[in-house]
Design goal:
single chain, flat
Length: 110
């Protein structure tokens, strides 16, 4: 099985993951809701077209170049664990600060 099913409970036997990304200037993204909805729809359609092309030809876009990045499982797991612990620590840290500020502010009101 591949695709979204593999991500959420299915089996995943492939050993390669392909990623394609682009950046956009904020000035090129519509700020009004209707324009942004259309812009997002257009990007989604481009993504679907790219996936179809990749399945057929092995390229995201014509003449695209790919760079292979080898991520050993141990290193990847280490990164995931590091960022998880960091996120938990920061959440606890900021929650503690906010809780103390709330207690301080509540004491001033009383």
């Amino acid at each position: 099985s591949s695709g979204i099913n593999a991500e959420y409970g299915g089996t995943y036997t492939d050993k390669e993951v392909y990623v394609n990304f682009r950046t956009f200037k904020m000035a090129d993204i519509p700020q009004e809701e209707k324009g942004m909805k259309q812009w997002l729809y257009d990007r989604y359609q481009e993504k679907e077209d790219m996936l179809k092309r990749f399945e057929e030809t092995g390229e995201f876009t014509p003449n695209s170049t790919m760079t292979l990045i080898d991520l050993p499982k141990g290193r990847l797991l280490g990164n995931v664990v590091f960022w998880y612990i960091t996120a938990v620590f920061l959440y606890d840290f900021y929650f503690c600060i906010l809780r103390n500020l709330w207690r301080f502010a509540s004491g001033l009101v009383l």
